[in-house]
């Protein structure tokens, strides 16, 4: 086993942006109104959300703009703040045509990608990855988190309209990013020293979470694992983004130590 290395993903954004724009330009008017797995959002709403996240990062980070916030903006925590901001944008974007949304995505998606590529991957990020329990993260982790966000929302659109999944080159780094939340997810799980939980996703790799003074994540499979959880890649990303309530997991060993992983959420909710 070895220590997990940084996940460098900035080079994956330009082709992901291009695939999104190509997909959206191919949609019929009725397809824009199809429901998605993103709650009550339709295809057009998810596309608008992807535009919002690009504009928000460019405005706040690249352009150093501080938006006005009401005094009670975080009264319901980070999740409440993010959900409220998302809802306001999506509601306003319903007044825009699909053609305008695609045009804006074709402009600001590449600008966002270029900005992410310009960051020193090892410098402190503007925001910590909250679902991994980090108040301060390195840029590489924040950028990888952004990849999971932009990728899984595009997958929601692809699922809704029956387009092929975009797995090659993306699924493995997305899962690798998600599993970095395991130590935080298991932080309150009491276990004897030496207990090990192996997570195996054939399309992405295998990781071991071992109880030492705390829970420590390693790449590779611990010998004589206490619990082994095998998940297909298609199920894993859906599970960690709240789209799958009954995962197709195969569990070997002590099932108690599988429960936290099967409830792990790697989005702000």
Describe this protein's structure:
The chain has helices spanning 13-25, 43-62, 77-93, 98-118, 139-161, 171-178, 182-185, 233-240, 259-262, and strands at residues 196-201, 205-211, 215-219, 227-230, 250-253. It is α+β, with helices and mostly antiparallel strands. A five-stranded mixed beta sheet has the order 3-2-1-4-5.
Strand-helix topology:
Elements: H1 13-25, H2 43-62, H3 77-93, H4 98-118, H5 139-161, H6 171-178, H7 182-185, E1 196-201, E2 205-211, E3 215-219, E4 227-230, H8 233-240, E5 250-253, H9 259-262
Parallel strand pairs: 1-4
Antiparallel strand pairs: 1-2, 2-3, 4-5
Helix pairs in contact: 1-4, 1-5, 2-3, 2-4, 2-5, 5-6, 6-8
């Amino acid at each position: 086993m070895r220590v997990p290395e940084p996940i460098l993903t900035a080079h994956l954004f330009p082709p992901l942006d291009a695939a999104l724009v190509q997909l959206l330009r191919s949609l019929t008017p009725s397809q824009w109104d199809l429901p998605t797995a993103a709650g009550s959002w339709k295809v057009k709403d998810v596309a608008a959300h992807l535009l919002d996240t690009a504009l928000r990062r460019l405005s706040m980070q690249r352009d150093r703009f501080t938006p006005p916030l009401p005094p009670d903006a975080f009264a319901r925590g980070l999740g409440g703040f993010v959900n409220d901001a998302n809802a306001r944008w999506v509601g306003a974007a319903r007044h825009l045509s699909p053609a305008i949304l695609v045009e804006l995505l074709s402009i600001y998606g590449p600008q966002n990608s270029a900005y992410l590529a310009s960051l020193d991957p090892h410098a402190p990020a503007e925001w910590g990855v909250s679902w991994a329990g980090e108040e301060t993260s390195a840029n590489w982790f924040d950028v990888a988190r952004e990849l999971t966000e932009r990728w899984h929302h595009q997958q929601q659109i692809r699922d809704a309209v029956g387009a092929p999944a975009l797995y090659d080159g993306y699924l493995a780094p997305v899962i690798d990013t998600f599993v970095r939340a395991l130590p935080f997810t298991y932080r309150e799980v009491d276990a004897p020293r030496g207990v090990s939980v192996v997570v195996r996703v054939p399309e992405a790799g295998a990781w071991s979470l071992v109880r030492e003074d705390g829970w420590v994540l390693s790449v590779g499979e611990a010998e004589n694992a206490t619990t082994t959880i095998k998940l297909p890649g298609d199920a894993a990303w859906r599970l960690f983004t709240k789209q799958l309530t009954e995962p197709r997991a195969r569990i070997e060993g002590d099932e108690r130590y599988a429960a936290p992983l099967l409830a792990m959420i790697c989005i702000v909710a």
